[in-house]
Amino acid sequence: MADNQLVILSKTFAVNVINLCDLLKNRKKASAIISQLLRSGTSIGANIHEANYASSKADFVNKFQIALKECYETDYWLDIFHDTEIVNEEEYSEMISQCSKIRKLLIASINTAKKNE
User: CATH fold of 2-115, please?
Assistant: First the structure.
């Protein structure tokens, strides 16, 4: 169940990241680092999706761990955009909340998968 929720949340988050990056491009701010947020924010869902087709439990855990690292990187870029006031408080709060929820589910899923090995 959590895996399915993760797939849905991470896909929605990726769409939101893409839309935010499009907004930022239109504002003509921070164009050099928008791609960093775009890559890390969409990579989360890609790795979660790929984990569903893992060849082993270890491969599954590895994909989730990569997704978790991408979550942490995305947090960083969102913080940078917030601290430089490139995104407003509402945009930041929504995105950071979504990312945090995904991160918590990933951590719980990784811990469960490792425990069940």
Answer: de novo design (two linked rop proteins) (1.20.1440)
**Nearest Cα to Cα of residue 86 among 28, 17, 15:** 28
Place of tokens 């929820």: 101
Q: Extract the tokens encoding 32.
A: 């050099």
Question: Which H or E run contains 2?
Answer: helix 2-27
Residue ranges of domains in the chain: 2-115
Burial annotation 24-49 (CB, 10 A radius, 16+ → b, else e): beeeeebeeebebbbebbbbbbbbbb
Nearest to 68 by CA among 89, 51, 90: 51
Q: Is the pTM of this model over 0.85?
A: yes
Each residue's pLDDT tens digit, 39-98: 999 999 999 999 989 999 999 999 999 999 999 999 999 999 999 999 999 999 999 999
Q: How far apart are CA 44 and CA 11, in angstroms?
A: 9
Tokens of 112: 């469960």
